[in-house]
Design brief:
The complex is a heterodimer of chains A (137) and B (401).
Chain A (H helix, E strand, L loop, with lengths): L5 H12 L3 H13 L22 E8 L2 E8 L2 H14 L4 H6 L2 H7 L14 H11 L4
Antiparallel strand pairs in A: 1-2
Chain B lengths: L11 H8 L3 E2 L10 H13 L10 H21 L7 E4 L2 H11 L9 E5 L8 H10 L2 E5 L9 H7 L4 E7 L11 H10 L3 E5 L11 H4 L3 E5 L10 E5 L1 H4 L12 E4 L4 E3 L13 H15 L3 H20 L4 E3 L7 E6 L4 H10 L2 E2 L1 E3 L4 H7 L4 E5 L6 H18 L1
Parallel strand pairs in B: 1-13, 3-4, 3-5, 5-6, 6-7
Antiparallel strand pairs in B: 2-8, 7-8, 9-10, 11-12, 12-15, 14-15
Helix pairs in contact in B: 2-10, 3-10, 12-14
Classes of the chains: A alpha+beta (137), B alpha/beta (401).
């Protein structure tokens, strides 16, 4: 398992202190509000991630420090879920992204249910797309 | 006095879900099952299974008798003229596909197949694809603002090229009865076939095929408190004779040679392969259970509960109902709140509802919404369920707004 970035460690600490679903929901909305914005052009059909029950756009950027993604969604809680995923993923080397145990990450945040198979919110689809978009080493 | 369902205890899952903190308000997707069904399935599998309509040994005879007895019960439930008017399928979807293939040979280029704007994908796609195979036209009847098929438009759109009308009896999104009594005569006057998708309608009240006077009526067992994997197609005797066989295999054939074969008439000719024997027997037991209930009391309970659901929704700020729901369910959106956010927070609070497009994407596009929340009721729901739902709704909206 990779070392957590400072931002990821901070996210983990805050979520683990949340006593219940209500606080976690409020935190998700806060985290979602802090997403880097996408331009109108970036919110395009090709950037849509299929498999989410509300629209979610994801773009990948090549940076020297590894994978970097930006994204957003129409739904606030989905933006929050995306934000806590991006916090964990951004800056990882491509091979670490391929191996990242995302279920474990959401589990540590108290959000395990968001990855369950019957959930159509699409975090699994987002992860699949990230792995496709990740630059090859 | 609080509205209590006297039938709740007949459904063991309700107490278990409640103990797990779950409030089940998704019966339009699938229903919970009565103990009578569970007992019938256990009894059948415990006492020895056998295939039907094949072997002559005693277990086979017993299974066949129970299977055919279930056919009789479905026929009685619908007041069909004869049990041979009931074909068992794997579900309502399969029954509709059966019809779309069975009637294909009667559809020519530029013929018209008529559906309505509110159809579930199961009663849209088989006809859409049939129309494409035959270069026929799919005509879509528009709705009025209440979510009911617009009869003036229907009178203009149903014409001499109409070969089939396939419409829902009760919308799974809008919760409104459709005007079949006015629609079906228009179709009959053109000599066309009428297909009624009763997947939702059959769950609420008894429907008499003699009074309804359609050619075909389709139902799903699992929405009617029965097991999954079973549906039924009612076909008026002479209408069934018009269908071509569509699935081929065991026991639907009368004489098979290497190069040709001939087939049984309905129902057996349309039940290729081993059917869901246990499920069919279970559906029979479910119908026995339902037959034993006081139908007027059930209808009153459902009506009162639905009225409370609507009253609670309409008093909440920003809630917009889809259409004008009459019974069973209500779909809604909330101004400024994305339906998936609301669904997320209702789920967190143990409220089992549906969110999304409810297998009716074209309808939701027509209504101009991306998705909606649907609350749907079964005869086992009671006022406590609605109170839990409204408590959770208020809390969710407080967080989201």
């Amino acid at each position: 398992m990779n070392e957590l970035s400072a931002a990821a460690a901070d996210t983990l600490r805050v979520f683990q202190q949340a006593p219940g679903w209500e606080q976690r929901a409020r935190l998700l909305m806060q985290w979602g509000d802090r997403l880097e914005p996408l331009t109108e052009d970036e919110r395009s059909e090709p950037n849509l991630v299929a498999g989410c029950d509300s629209k979610l756009w994801l773009v990948a950027e090549r940076r020297c420090d590894g994978c970097h993604f930006r994204g957003t969604s129409e739904a606030r809680l989905l933006r929050g879920l995306l934000a806590v995923l991006l916090v964990r993923v951004n800056g990882l080397p491509a091979d670490a992204l391929q191996q990242l145990d995302v279920a474990d990450w959401f589990g540590q945040l108290g959000l395990a249910r968001q990855l369950s198979p019957s959930r159509a919110n699409g975090m699994n689809a987002v992860l699949r797309r990230m792995r496709e978009l990740a630059p090859a080493e | 006095m609080s509205l209590v369902s006297p039938w709740r205890a007949d459904f063991p899952a309700l107490a278990i879900l409640e103990a797990q903190g779950q409030t089940y308000l998704d019966s339009a997707a699938t229903s919970q099952k009565p103990q009578a069904l569970i007992d019938a399935l256990t009894g059948y599998y415990t006492c020895g299974t056998a295939n039907v309509h094949r072997a002559q040994h005693q277990p086979a005879e017993r299974a066949t008798r129970a299977f055919e007895n279930a056919r009789l019960k479905v026929a009685r439930w619908l007041n069909a003229s004869c049990p041979t008017e009931i074909v068992f399928t794997r579900g309502a979807t399969e029954a509709l596909n059966l019809l779309a293939y069975g009637l294909e040979h009667l559809i020519e280029a530029d013929d018209e197949i008529v559906i309505s704007a509110l159809e579930h994908h199961a009663n849209l796609l088989p006809w859409q694809q049939l129309a494409r195979r035959r270069s026929a036209r799919l005509v879509v009847l528009p709705l009025d603002p209440r979510g009911i098929i617009d009869m003036d438009a229907a009178a203009n759109l149903i014409g001499p090229r109409t070969r089939v009308l396939a419409v829902s009896q009760l919308s799974n999104v809008l919760g409104a009865w459709q005007p079949l009594a006015e629609l079906l005569p228009l179709v009959r006057a053109q000599g066309a076939f009428s297909v009624v998708d009763g997947a939702q309608g059959v769950v609420h009240g008894r429907h008499d095929m003699q009074a309804l006077d359609c050619d075909f009526y389709v139902l799903s067992s699992h929405k009617l408190y029965g097991p999954e994997g079973v549906g039924a197609l009612y076909g008026r005797g002479e209408s069934l004779l018009k269908l071509r066989h569509w699935q081929f295999g065991g026991e639907m054939v009368r004489v098979a040679n290497y190069q040709d074969a001939n087939f049984h008439a309905a129902p057996l000719g349309f039940e290729a392969g081993t059917p869901a024997i246990g499920g069919v027997i279970g559906l029979g037991a479910t119908l026995d259970y339902l037959t034993g209930l006081d139908a007027a009391k059930v209808a009153d309970h459902e009506r009162a509960l639905h009225a409370q659901l609507l009253a609670g929704l309409t008093t909440r700020n920003g809630v917009r109902l889809l259409g004008d729901p009459q019974l069973a369910l209500a779909s809604f959106t909330v101004d400024g709140v994305h339906h998936t956010d609301l669904a997320h927070l209702l789920t967190e609070q143990g409220i089992a509802i549906r969110s999304g497009t409810h297998c009716a994407q074209p309808l939701l596009k027509t209504l101009g919404v991306d998705g909606a929340i649907r609350v749907s009721l079964g005869l086992y729901n009671d006022e406590m369920d609605l109170q839990r739902f409204f408590g959770a709704l208020d809390q969710a909206l407080e967080i989201l707004r």
